[in-house]
Amino acid sequence: MIDLIELDKAIKDQKVLTAFKDGVADGLLYGVRDARQLNNSYYKQGYDFGLTISERQRERLEEV
To answer: Which of 3, 22, 26, 50 has the fewest CB atoms inside 10 Å of its own CB, making it the most exposed?
Structure first.
């Protein structure tokens, strides 16, 4: 079992949150993937999340 200190260190070392945030920004703001991040699963999850938010926002605006 991994302890929280080791988990926090692994998250920082692998830049998990940075990759996820970059993916969200690219999906939400630009709708274009960064070709350098195609093999990063955290980036992909963030990108998909950003696209989902963008699509939901468009749907809400169309309802008005």
So the answer is: 3
Structure token digits, residue 4: 């929280």
Are the CB atoms for 35 and 43 separated by under 8 Å?
no
Instruction: Give the whole-angstrom CA distance, residue 63 versus residue 39.
Output: 37
Q: Which stretch of 10-14, 24-28, 40-44 has the lowest confidence by average pLDDT?
A: 10-14
Burial class (CB in 10 A: 0-12, 13-18, 19+), 27: buried
Q: How far is CA 4 from the centre of its chain?
A: 22
Could you tell me which residues come within 8 angstroms of residue 4 by beta carbon, excluding any fewer than 6 positions away? none
